[in-house]
Queue: 2 jobs
Job 1
Amino acid sequence: MNVAVIAYRAGRLTVLDQTRLPGASVAVELDGLEAVEVAIRTLQVRGAPLIGITAAYGVCVALREAGKPPAAPVALRICREAIKRLAGTRPTAVNLFWALERMTRVVERHGVGTPGGTPDGRPGLLPALEAEAAAIHEETRVQDAAMAVHGSALIPAGAKVITHCNTGPLATGCGGTALGVLIAAHRKHGNDGGIHVLVDETRPRWQGAHLTTWELKTLGVPHTLICDNAAAMMMRLETIHSVWVGADRIAANGDTANKIGTYSLAVNARHHGVSFYVTAPSSTVDLTLADGAGIPIEHRDPAEVSAPGGRAIAPPGTPASNPAFDVTPAELITAIVTERGVHRGPVYDLRRDLG
Ligand code: MRU
């Protein structure tokens, strides 16, 4: 990939505009809080870990936007307001709230009257926020690398696997989660049978078709694009080793929210005796939720379904529903791979494993 998925240099945040892929690799600068909000809402940046990283840098962008170093109370107000607005961009991926919580702790540590706080907001608060955002980014890199090692150990040479949505470098700004595992397996087995990835197109926003195939092509990983609704037949007629997906939020019992269509893939995998793996960093695990019933599901514009890419595919006025995520019950998940290792199901206690 020639253009960085996300970069924050000299106080300037640039991202690869994922809505332009696979046609064009265009970097856009997010030069203010509103630009960051729009980028997250419109999926210019997307994928749970990348949303968190972008929001963390977004707080820094908001403070820089204020121009000359503002006085401490103003700086704090700007940051608190930015965090509130960024938290309203997308509801399901918990990495967003996890990252904003870390930024909040930095802001409040520098609060007026707090021992050790800086009186003028800058220098002090801004470098501290920038360091925290960079730390979140760097931790993601390390976690992605660890998940790739743990997960790829589960994939034998010659395996044909299915993946859904996009969980590669585009989704994390680093190595990727589920797709990072598959890329690592490809590198490991390249000379002894390799692996082959069946890529669900992932209606309605086609993250599989637009993004995952682009990444796999760029990296030279053998793959085939399939319609979402072809996966069951593939499991029946071909030897599918396993299904690999990422996650947007995992409850303490292992129930997993991920891109719409993941649940039916898991049901089909169980029916056909195919292993179903979820790969996600611990920042995607929401230990405050006992199970998946409490996971907020984002409902996006119905026009994404009835007029994808702006082209109507149904009669005008056709009602459409567009839940962006679904929840796969833990009992359908063979194992959850985090940076800490492989957590095997069908019963999970992630409070014990990760708490
Ligand atoms: O709507 P998106 O494109 O942000 O949805 C992304 C997914 O559902 C991914 O599978 C998930 O975030 C895991 S990415 C590492």
Job 2
Amino acid sequence: MQVQNRVVMLVDFDYFFAQCEELRDPTIKDKPVVVGVYSGRTEESGAVSTSNYVARKYGVKSGMPLFLAKRKLEGTDAVFKPVDHEYYDQVSDKIMQILRGYADAFEQVSVDEAYLDVTQKVQGDFEQARLYAQKMKAHAKKETGITVSVGVGLNKLVAKVACDSQKPDGLTVVKPEEAQGFLAPLPVNCLLGVGKKTSSKMDSLGIKTVGDLAKYDIQKLIAIFGKTLGIYFHNAANAIDNEPVQEQGEAESIGRVGTLKQNTRDLEFILQKTDELIEDIFKEVTEKNLSFKQVAVYAVMSDLSGKSRSVTLEQPAKDKETIKRNVRSLFEKYLGESKLEIRRVGVKVAGFSREEPQQKQLTSFFQIG
Ligand code: DGT
Ligand code: CA
Ligand code: CA
């Protein structure tokens, strides 16, 4: 029996932070849009995080100093926005949730990128995969307003390079038998892990394209780059990559910190602030259907020294009251131990376990019966 090919997708959201800004204010859509990280020292200092494709036509690039981007866009009606990670995370979560529904296995790799193994969903068929990707792209666009680019290949490596080859709003399908030919003419730095240093080293060996690398003697690669990298480069260049698409492990803890309006030793005043933090934490814990076994607090004192305290619960819990009760008693202790005023507070829960949702248990119960 022939072993079935995998069908793997990489989805990357187009000019993501800038597209989020367009989503929030559609009137800027046809103008150059630059999202910047302002260092805060002067109004002008900082760097470009990303920009829309209109701005890119003028030569604006990620990482470029903002003053340079301003100069390139002089005379245009360019719009500059500061990064707003909270908003981008919200948009990202919505898209990720939709994508997840299309996958047999799902792996989010960053705020704007995820791998999907869709082998079962498309029965290993790359023609079907193309239609499936089109449907998924349209769904994401309709629900969230965001366009994404998709690469489809027999593994993560090919899917990633395919996706990068056509943006924005791209869809590039590379069938298994086309994979090596697809990679061959591309520069070696299209491969994950080949940065400036490695590619100039390879260049000095006469390796310019992935095709050159694929043909290069593997023993020599190992001698030059070491065993792990040498084998990796050889395999990657030959479109071989067996990394599974897998869900990233749960976060180890969920926490929030906040600064008090004024330094204080007033327990009720402190607990008002921690209640806000707990609301947020509780929301995330509930969404992820987690139970926790540890509650911790953190405080920064008026002299900027910091301390943390935690308790381990006897039973895993998942309710807000348990967090509140323990936070109160931890801060009571805290205030008893120090004479200083508190300036900043944090709350954290950890020691997670995940329970099956009630409904699922019921349905599986009925299925068995
Ligand atoms: P593209 O090429 O359409 O995928 O454009 P982006 O902007 O989505 O680029 P990508 O996928 O490489 O990066 C995703 C986000 O990460 C991007 O919207 C902003 C941020 N980012 C990327 N490169 C840089 C950088 O050099 N500096 C900073 N501060 N942020 C960056
Ligand atoms: Ca992107
Ligand atoms: Ca990306």
